[in-house]
Amino acid sequence: MADTPQPHGGASELLRHLAPYAPVFGGAVLSMAFGERLTIRGKLLSAGVGLAAAMWVAPFLVDIARLLWRWGDLPISAVAVIGFACGAFGMILLSGLAQALAKYSRDPLKLVRIQIGNVIITGGSGAGDAS
C-alpha cells in the first residue's frame, strides 16, 4: 500500500501551476483598456499572444536573469515582473501589428514606393510623382 501514489488535490494543484501567470493575466486585463481599436476577436488574439510570450519567452529571460544575478537567488518578484513585461510586450506588439495590418489591408500598394532618378512612383491612391 505504501507504493501506491496518493492523489493530489485537484484545484490546489491547478492553482499552484497557474499562480506564476497571475501577473500575465493582470497585464492582459490592463491592456484591454488600451486596445480601443481592436475587435473582441483581436483582443482575444492579443491576449493569447501575450500569454504565449509569457509562457515561452519569459522563462528564457528569467534563466538569463538568474545567470546574471550576482546577489544570491533571483527574487520571485523579479520573475513576476519579467512575466508581466513579456506578456504585456507580446500583447502590445500584436495589437500594433493588427492595427497596421488593418490600415494597409485596404490598400496594400500604399507601401510601394520606387524612386528612379528624379521620378518617384508610388502605388495605391497616389499615381506617379515627379520631383
Task: List the SSEs and their pairings.
Layout: H1 10-18, H2 22-32, H3 40-56, H4 58-68, H5 76-105, E1 113-116, E2 119-122, E3 128-130
Antiparallel strand pairs: 1-2, 2-3
Structural notes for this entry:
By secondary structure, the protein is mainly alpha-helical. The chain is 60% helix and 8% strand. The protein contains five helices and three strands, in the order αααααβββ. The chain has helices spanning 10-18, 22-32, 40-56, 58-68, 76-105, and strands at residues 113-116, 119-122, 128-130. A three-stranded antiparallel sheet has the order 1-2-3, with no helix packed on it. α3 crosses α5. The longest helix has 30 residues, at 76-105. It is elongated.
H/E series: HHHHHEEE
Q: Which structural category fits the helices and strands? A: mainly alpha
Low-confidence stretches: 126-131
Beta-strand residue percentage: 5-15%
Query: Largest sheet, if any?
Result: 3 strands, antiparallel
Helix content: 55-70%
| Widest beta sheet: strand line-up | 1-2-3
Give the integer mean of the pLDDT values. 75
Q: Give the strand tally.
A: 3
C-alpha Rg, in Å? 23 Å
Termini distance? 88 Å
Overall, the morphology is elongated
| Number of alpha- plus pi-helical segments | 5
